[in-house]
Design brief:
nine-stranded mixed beta sheet, alpha+beta, single chain, about 600 residues
Length: about 600
């Protein structure tokens, strides 16, 4: 078969295969065009998951008749002034979206430029253009896409259900709305109730309002502002407290020069920054905005422009890690679960009497005026938790302790939780989670300073395991030795533990080694040594901390509180769980209806 030039219609349909993957791709391209046109309000409507109809209306600058005639031709754009692909300052730049959409759907464009006496309209159906005609429109541009993929019916078989496609459209609009809080967005359709995100004020406060509207009140209440700048690269945005997490990475929103992207480099940097705070199966919620010179980033590496390539990728990664770690350290004692709101929400009264109820008319009211023993509410039995494990009430509490952030220890209950008193409330501390964080930070500091101090066992501990596990542990012997855990092979199915870290004191060597072996089974050689060492430190800290079920003396409880105050990131343990919850007097009064 000889080589031949393909017809323009076929070329456009081939190009549409890359640009128009699904209805959400159409919405993305058209909304980006509206943003590039300087719109302050964008309305999006979809029907049938975008398959039957998509309508995008904006109040942007619009197009003249001459521009409209060229806009539906391939590679015709107004966004490249000097044909320099390294100086891209707009979301779109290729000039492929409108001709690609028009090649596979029925496209209708109505637009009005300020210099024109009236609006102009044009239609493209399956690549066939109609002449431009006068139309009625007060301002901006209105684009309607109907019968998507009618010209390529085979593509329809690869679409999901209407609800799934509508959700994909919603996600695209959410990301673009996060990137531009100064633009008002309205999203409507048969599959959903209309949603409007009003334009917000410029700066971080307005950005947080928009993010809270989209990601929810939980994110707004627990958002930590982050910012870092170096060599012309700016990283800013908001990151959720470590205990507000997701089961996947879909809650991580990343933007480069205002463009929503999914970049493995940035996702890896976010994971590295949270590695000290989250368990392996949980993911943080963040919205990060990277701003840099357009010549330092290449946006022309993906057909849908969802990936970018940085000239200095190491600088961007380091800056993201620094910004997140600095923000998390600054709010070290703050978690999503130790705030009063989440604590109060867990209290649910069993039953409430009507507002006009008179207790004297109750059938349970005693005839003789004295309460019968059975009159006591059964629900009160839940509060019979026995005597406290340790009680400090008879002792005098110095006033200065009450002024400390974590107050003065008052009692220990269930051999697990310490209750402390502050000037304006009370705090409940999980003794194991709190001490786990303290030991972990000590191990890190000791490793960074001069190595972890070891203690030689008089009689080595022999731990029996399967051969594969023994080989895995012995292969990582040098890394473990850096933390003071010295092991060696003791036959085909056993390991001898000769030295342990002094910080751990007396520890269960068998349990520690088995936990380490489980973690190591999930590692690969690509995992940086530092990350692997931190995993080892976290596991050791868990085994070396005060266990639940241990009775503490009053001085031990207060010493633990003081250490928490001096320890960074003490608001949560190494697994992301909160170490304490706090209730102010105001919150307690609300629980009892006093406020």
């Amino acid at each position: 078969m000889p080589v031949r030039q393909l017809p323009e219609t076929i070329v456009n349909r081939i190009a549409a295969g890359e640009v128009v993957e699904r209805p959400a791709s159409v919405v993305k391209e058209l909304v980006e065009n509206a943003i590039d046109a300087g719109a302050s309000r964008i309305d999006i409507f979809s029907d049938g998951g975008g398959r039957r109809k998509i309508v995008i209306a904006d109040d942007g600058s619009g197009m003249t008749a001459a521009d409209l005639a060229l806009a539906v031709d391939r590679h015709a754009t107004s966004k490249l002034d000097d044909e320099d692909l390294l100086a891209i300052r707009t979301l779109g730049f290729r000039g492929e979206a409108l001709p690609s959409i028009g090649a596979v759907a029925r496209l209708s464009i109505t637009t009005r430029h300020a210099s024109e006496p009236h609006a102009w309209a044009m239609r493209v159906e399956g690549g066939d253009k109609t002449p431009i005609a006068p139309a009625a429109l007060s301002q901006g541009t209105r684009v309607e896409v109907a019968d998507l993929f009618f010209a390529t019916p085979a593509r329809l078989k690869f679409l999901k259900t209407d609800r799934t496609e509508a959700e994909a459209i919603r996600e695209v609009v959410r990301r673009l709305a996060m990137a531009r809080p100064d633009v008002a967005f309205t999203l409507a359709g048969e599959e959903r109730a209309p949603v409007t995100w009003a334009a917000a004020l410029p700066g971080a406060p307005g950005q947080l309002i928009r993010l809270g509207d989209i990601l929810g009140a939980d994110f707004r209440a627990n958002a930590i502002e982050v910012r870092a700048e170096r060599e012309g690269v700016v990283v800013e945005g908001f990151a959720a407290a470590p205990s507000l997490t997701r089961a996947n990475a879909l809650g991580q929103y990343l933007f480069v020069n205002g463009r929503p992207v999914r970049d493995k480099l940035i996702l890896g940097a976010v994971r590295a920054a949270y590695s000290d705070y989250l368990p392996r199966d949980r993911h943080p919620v963040v919205a990060l905005f990277v701003t840099l010179d357009s010549r330092e980033v290449d946006a022309n590496v993906h057909p849908a422009k969802t990936e970018v390539r940085f000239r200095n990728a190491g600088l961007v990664r380091a800056l993201i890690v620094h910004a997140l770690k600095e923000g998390l350290a600054r709010e070290g004692r703050r978690t999503a679960a130790n705030s009063a709101g989440s604590v109060i929400s867990t209290f649910r009264p069993a039953s409430m009497p009507p507002a006009n109820w008179d207790w004297r008319t109750s059938p349970s009211y005693p005839v003789g005026g004295s309460a019968a023993p059975s009159f006591a509410e059964r629900a009160q039995a839940a509060f019979d938790v026995g005597a406290p494990s340790a009680d400090i009430r008879p002792q005098e509490v110095t006033p200065d302790l009450l002024d400390r952030p974590l107050g003065a220890a008052r009692t220990q209950i269930h051999e697990t939780y310490i209750v402390s008193q502050t000037r304006d409330g009370l705090i409940v501390i999980d003794q194991h989670a709190a001490h786990e964080r303290i030991v972990y930070e000590r191990l890190k500091a000791s490793l960074e300073a001069n190595g972890v101090q070891r203690q030689i066992l008089l009689i080595p501990d022999i731990v029996e395991m399967d051969e594969a596990t023994v080989e895995r542990l012995v292969a990582r012997g040098e890394e473990l030795a850096k933390f003071g855990l010295v092991i060696e092979s003791f036959g085909p199915g056993a390991v001898a533990v000769r030295e342990t870290p002094s910080l751990l004191g007396k520890t269960d060597a068998g349990g520690l080694l088995r936990d380490l072996a489980e973690h190591m089974a999930e590692w690969d050689e690509a995992l940086p040594l530092e990350r692997r060492l931190m995993h080892v430190a976290a596991t050791m800290a868990c085994h070396g901390s005060v266990r639940a079920g241990r009775v503490l003396k009053p001085e031990e409880m207060n010493a633990l509180l003081r250490e928490m105050e001096a320890t960074p990131n003490s608001g949560q343990c190494n697994h992301g769980r909160p170490t304490y919850v706090e209730l102010t007097l105001t919150d307690i009064e609300k629980l009892f209806g006093r406020r």
